[in-house]
Amino acid sequence: MKKRALQIALIGLLIGVAFFFRGRDRLPETPEATVNALFDAAEAGDAAAYLRLVEGKLKAESLAVKNQVGARQFGEDLRSWAAGIENFGITRQDDPAPDQVALEVKITFADRDEIQRWVLVAQADGWVVTSMDTAVTQEQEIPFGTPVFGTPDQE
């Protein structure tokens, strides 16, 4: 009887582990979710997750950088870049093809905004980023984080 209970417990554990890991390598289901996942991967310094979300020339360029500086430094560079981001916004543009989406991604740093056009392509299990245009930098008229109505001690 104890042997049977142990077998049932082991089967339950294996099913739980399989359920936990199910879908972990899936790509995000929407282009916007892919952008969010890419920023999350950069913030965590997770080079593998970042590289899973890019394809084409962008992936080749990213892999070349990773191979040049090493996996650890590549992850640190991702984390360092993401650490300066205060906020970001996503706006859909005209779709270049039926299985592609173009997004305008506006990244807000403390002292500037950077605007890029990203192209994402549908894969069998989700979306990946295939290109990011060179960022156009805009100075902010009012720096990010400036109080709108003054500080409480001024009121």
Describe this structure in words.
Strands 1, 2, 3, 4 and 5 form a five-stranded antiparallel sheet that branches. The protein has a single domain (28-143), classed as Roll (Nuclear Transport Factor 2, Chain: A). The protein contains five helices and five strands; from the N terminus they run αααααβββββ. It has 155 residues and is an alpha+beta fold. Helix 2 packs across helix 5. 43% of the residues lie in helices and 26% in strands. Strand 2 and strand 3 (112-123) form a beta hairpin. It has helices at residues 2-21, 31-44, 47-52, 56-69, 71-83, and strands spanning 85-92, 100-109, 112-123, 126-132, 136-139.
Structural class: alpha+beta
Low-confidence segments, ≥5 residues, pLDDT <50?
16-23
What's the SSE pattern? Answer: HHHHHEEEEE
- Give the percentage of residues in beta strands: 25-35%
What is the CATH topology? Nuclear Transport Factor 2, Chain: A
Main sheet properties: 5 strands, antiparallel
> Briefly, what CATH class?
Alpha Beta
Quickly give the CATH architecture: Roll
Domain unit count: 1
* Shape, per Cα inertia axes: globular
Q: How widely separated are the two ends?
A: 75 Å
- Overall average pLDDT: 84
- Number of H/I helices: 5
Total beta strand runs: 5
Helical fraction equals: 40-55%
Rg over CA atoms, rounded to whole Å, is 21 Å
Describe the protein's topology.
Blueprint: H1 2-21, H2 31-44, H3 47-52, H4 56-69, H5 71-83, E1 85-92, E2 100-109, E3 112-123, E4 126-132, E5 136-139
Antiparallel strand pairs: 1-2, 2-3, 3-4, 3-5
Helix pairs in contact: 2-5, 4-5
